[in-house]
Amino acid sequence: MTDRIERALAYAREIFAGDASGHDYWHTWRVWKLARRLAEAEGADSAVVELAALLHDVDDAKLSPGTCAEKLRARAWLEGEGVAEADIARILHIIGQVSYRGTDSETPDSPEGMCVQDADRLDAIGAIGIARTFAFGGSRGRTLWDPEEKPRTEIDAQAYRTGGGCTINHFYEKLLLLRDLMNTPTARRMAEERHRVMTDFLEEFFSEWQGVR
Ligand code: ADP
Ligand code: NI
């Protein structure tokens, strides 16, 4: 690991200290690990992928609305490191493409962006994804499930951000859609198993809810 990566990890640790919405430091750490692995498998530029992964949430709209549009925190950190402007522009461009926005989501236009987006989405599904989703719901005071509240379909960026439904609905509004949205073959393979973990979980959840198991 280079000194710069170590400093980026320390920066992420500082930024996300105290987060209880599933976007804590360890989310960034896992996305970095996954993105690095995907970059290796896909032959993408790993220096760019690693920095974009480590900085992908520092200007997140929910956590830092004031700096989100221009990615000001990521830019300031990269400038402080003396990273060349061309590389800063590439990294910020990737970060801008990563986030899930329902039907307004972007497909990254570079292999590097595809690796970072896939890594962030892999961390949203599977066992970790289930845990993060309920943590997020708890942080927003949401109920686990309300059988009378139907999940929405075909939601756009605005609806995705403003929807305040029960947590189980998030599986139908986002998480179960991610498997088929992976960009890289490696992530597509990994998503299969994680997807199955979620469908098994939901089946068990509904059985227990009805008291049949
Ligand atoms: P991205 O990482 O693509 O920017 P978000 O930050 O919106 O996406 O979501 C990241 C994770 O936060 C989700 O995968 C989920 O675990 C949790 N989350 C976001 N919105 C909701 C929601 N409405 N209900 C439950 N969990 C949510
Ligand atoms: Ni993220």
Describe this protein's structure:
With 213 residues, the protein is mostly helical. Helices cover 61% and strands 0% of the residues. The protein contains ten helices and no strands. It has helices at residues 3-15, 25-42, 46-55, 72-80, 85-98, 111-122, 126-139, 157-162, 167-173, 185-210. The longest helix is centred in the last third of the chain and has 26 residues, at 185-210. The mean pLDDT is 95. The protein binds adenosine-5'-diphosphate and nickel (II) ion (NI). Adenosine-5'-diphosphate is lined by residues 22, 99-100, 120, 124, 129, 132-133, 136-137, 167, 170.
Name the hetero compounds present: adenosine-5'-diphosphate, nickel (II) ion
Give a short account of the largest sheet.
Answer: none
Distance between the termini: 48 Å
Number of strand segments: 0
Pattern of helices and strands: HHHHHHHHHH
* Percent range of helical residues: 55-70%
User: Which regions are unreliable across 5 or more consecutive residues at pLDDT < 50?
Assistant: none
- Mean pLDDT comes to 95
- Beta fraction: under 5%
Separate helix tally: 10
The Rg value, from CA coordinates, equals 17 Å
Shape category: globular
Helix and strand content put the structural class at mainly alpha
Features:
single chain, 213 residues, mainly alpha, 10 helices, binds nickel (II) ion
List the helices and strands and how they pair.
Layout: H1 3-15, H2 25-42, H3 46-55, H4 72-80, H5 85-98, H6 111-122, H7 126-139, H8 157-162, H9 167-173, H10 185-210
This protein binds adenosine-5'-diphosphate and nickel (II) ion (NI).
Nickel (II) ion (NI) is lined by residues 27, 31, 56-57, 120.
